[in-house]
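Summary for the steering committee. One of the milestones for this cycle was to obtain a three-dimensional model of the protein with magnesium ion bound, which we needed before selecting residues for the alanine scan. The sequence and ligand used are listed below.
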Amino acid sequence: MNTLLDVQDVTLRFGGVVALNRVSLQVAWGNITAIIGPNGAGKTTLFNCITGFYKPQNGHIILTPPNRSATHLHHLLGQSFAWSDLVHPGQVWGKLRAKMFGGPHSVCRAGIARTFQNIRLFKEMTVLENLLVAQYRQLNRYFIGGLLGTRYFRDEESMAINRAMEWLRFFALEADANRLAGQLPYGHQRRVEMARSLCTDPMVLCLDEPAAGLNPMETQALSQLIRRLKNEFNLTILLIEHDIGLVMELSDHIVVLDHGEVIAQGRPADIQRNPRVVEAYLG
Ligand SMILES: Nc1ncnc2c1ncn2[C@@H]1O[C@H](COP(=O)(O)OP(=O)(O)OP(=O)(O)O)[C@@H](O)[C@H]1O
Ligand SMILES: [Mg+2]
């Protein structure tokens, strides 16, 4: 297996609640991996760790793109500084820099993008503006360039608009480009969120319950779009979803969480038959 994302022994506690307990899983390059489990199992918390919103108390999450060196995601979030670090001055700057500038945006820059269980769009902005904001870290647009209206500045701006419009076209949202995001129907807002995350040009796309609140027709259309993202754009997808039909139809690999622990993982057909999964979740 060509592992792109390696989650090793990740533990995260909220006070007395152990939300993730020594969770390990591997995500293969170009696969759709589903994370399923009952409410409160720790699925979103795992996404928050992978995307840099939370820093686990133990464990490692390592991203290794093909032919590139591995990135330890927690290094991007800053590490606590110890006086003993001064023995290795080379590490001090790296740690301080991560502390000052690290965060979820650094993880996003490394190639991991996400959507949220509760849609988080800028509701007072247009759809297109939402997609442009997502690209600000990729653009080399300097304030002075903007003031002077340099050619370089304008080229960068039109590239960002083109990229946004391509993704809006993919999600059949072109006609909504200039509408306020908050005024769109729920199903459209879900697709805008996906389009926005894709504007960051990720390798891994993490979708937290993308089918929640959609009707069966919208769910079917979403399923086809997710499959196209894998097949046409070679994206690696992590999918949290309660719609088991969708999960079974799309996934190459399924990981089942219960009470913060991985209770099973494997191919869809094996998971469906696994007695522990049936008891804890599938019923
Ligand atoms: N910020 C937080 N502070 C305290 N406890 C939290 C926090 N976030 C999650 N938890 C707890 O961690 C556990 C896992 O929650 P999480 O949201 O990851 O579950 P989930 O599997 O995504 O559930 P659902 O299917 O309902 O979305 C729950 O017990 C939850 O109450
Ligand atoms: Mg959740």
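Key point for the committee: The chain is about 40% helix and 20% strand.
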